[in-house]
Task: structure prediction
Amino acid sequence: MSRQPPHLLHRPSAQVMSDLQRAVALVNGGQWRQAQIHAQRVLAVTPKDSSALNVLGTVAMNTGPVDDALVWFERAAAGQPRNPFIQFNLGEAHRRLHAYPTAAKFFQRAAVLKPDFAEAHAAAGDAFRIMRQGVHAERSYQAALRLSPTLPGALSGYGLLALQNGDPSLAASRFETGCVNAPVGHPMRPVLLANLGVALLQIGQGLQAFDVLAQAVDIAPGDDEHWRRLAGALRHTRVAPATPAFRDVLCRLFERTDVNPRNLATAALAVIRQDAEIDDLLNAVAAEPRALTRTLEEKSDAASRFVQDPLFRSLLASAPIPNAAVELLLVQLRADLLAIANDEPASLEEELGLIVAIARQAFLNEYVYFASAEEQSRVDSLIAQLEHGDPEFGAGAAARIALVAAYRPLASTPLSSRLQAVDLPALADLLREQLTEPAEEARLRSTLPLLKPMVDSISIAVQQQYEENPYPRWTRCGLGAPLPFREAVQAALPELATREIPETDAPQVLVAGCGTGLETLRVTSTYRNASILAVDLSGASLGYAMRKSREYGIEVEHLQADILDLTALSQRFDLIDSFGVIHHMAEPVRGLKVLSGLLKPQGLIFLGLYSEIGRRAVVEARRHIAHGQYANSAEGIRALRRELMLAGAPAQLQSVVSPASDFWTLSDCRDLLFHVEEHRFTLPQIGELLDSAGLEFLGVQFGHQADRTRYRAENRSSDSMRDLRRLHLHEMKHPEIFGDTYRLWARRTKAPK
Ligand SMILES: C[S@@+](CC[C@H](N)C(=O)[O-])C[C@H]1O[C@@H](n2cnc3c(N)ncnc32)[C@H](O)[C@@H]1O
Result:
């Protein structure tokens, strides 16, 4: 047998070495495709080269499914079992697969193999923190910071641990130190800024929080999470940073499809009111609502700046505006525009953009604005003119059509079929919202299966209400990245032990009383791989929900049914989500028993139930409504709202007319104040209700982390989070703590009584 010539012996050639060095340099520079080519060249010659396999794993982790990365890293580790960087990468791949115990093991092994590997200690800390193993997490972060006191990743994780432990001040100081050590250009800076924003919010430093959250989106505009966090933080704020950069960020937020524009409304008003004269105008309208015309004459410059403001125009077209002064001003403006249409129609077209925006606002709030009999008859004339005028809707028609749409939904007018065929680009959004989308809902609704005709008289009355006013009327919603089931449940209820949550990668979820689908979208963006059955009484609500789930590309099975009839279902669920529903049933306990019977043995139920304590102002308002004999109709609702706006709401009703209240659209206001059936509960009563339905109380969500921390501090016993009596006493002391709706968790204990 002849000996092989020396150059064919298995030894890395210069070419292989050079390819390997290139591959490593390229992967470190984030040039995935090129790195992959060079690593594959190395493997063609030396198929077990651990460094090349590690490069391919890194490429896969950044570009492809993480499972692929895991395979590469495992092969790399087989060749070099003591390489700490490969162990670290294995940990990272497991972390991304949410396999935290395994991830922690690999990170710790990396740290043992290379004791000065601060990043590995920090990453182990992150895995322990997510597993809520606080002591291990603390130890790992401290080890990381001993080795590298300014390591931004460790400071970020250590700050998150402080947040988890209910200490936002400590968290903020850690994030701040992290920011100092992650200067502009550092990849951790946006994350640290966003985390700092969250901590600052929790310690009540809203303005600073918005400022740093806005910086985070500015630096990393491609990270959707930062935008959503900022939008969530802005919900109901009354203050906003006074900088052009913040105004710009807010305008961009209005354009996003993963942000609910209703969360931006008060922030937009706060920014617009930074113009002192506009602020003065709105204050004057609020102080003397009956002197509105005089105020508008005196402050006409501010008024015209206000309605021309592009941010105001975005708000007008995207979200109901929760402010009485603005509403009164718009009601007047709409009436003035109608008068112009009558007296000097030629000049109306100049205001087309404004009229379209007002019409979009009117459609969003379901025509909750007050209109006089004179205005209504003028609108009738306008419709008649358009109906009998130019069949092509020629010059000047667009503004008049938009004006009609500012008073009535176009689909309800005799113009509707002709309008579907015309090409009026200035009205494109308006016609889509008022004609195309409702037609699509009606079509989808006709395909909807009905389990059984409703027979319960209260269910029929409730159905009727939501057929007339589907709730909530929403346009865009805040989507997030869904988590594995257990992790997602623990994010809502941190004290729930992992073993108490069904172990499933694909939870079966029933949304019982899904309304218009907003809650369903929340479910899909909370629980990874959820398959969803969404049920409601109201066909109109379900039509809306079906259109929206299609728009967001989400697969949901919809069914029209009374919860009372769901005993006919054979499917069983890991989770039932029923928010704001069973308190509208004649006998909530009957509904809850049905739902309880649909749970898998370990299944969980998430309920939104009205709080007797949190809804005290609503009870007062209902008394006021009965006393004033306001009818449960669109007219009655408009009359009540007008009275409260012109005469001012009595002190005990202030929270009902606050920006955060459901006061600003017709369906919201009907749901809040005029519901045909409403039960409210105290926490002890909820205990009895759950017990009767064979359910065990697992906990209630606190709106703010700080509230939860305070409760824990005042109630140190280990079971205090499940102690309804203590929670009740706490709510009596702090009546706002759970808002007007409890967010409760329970599970099945025994067969329903
Ligand atoms: C206040 S809305 C809440 C909608 C949705 N859960 C949300 O949070 O956005 C109440 C919904 O429950 C539905 N509902 C009330 N009673 C019901 C019943 N007996 N069976 C099915 N749905 C019911 C109503 O039709 C309505 O859409």
About this structure: The domain at 458-611+680-748 is CATH 3.40.50.150 (Rossmann fold).
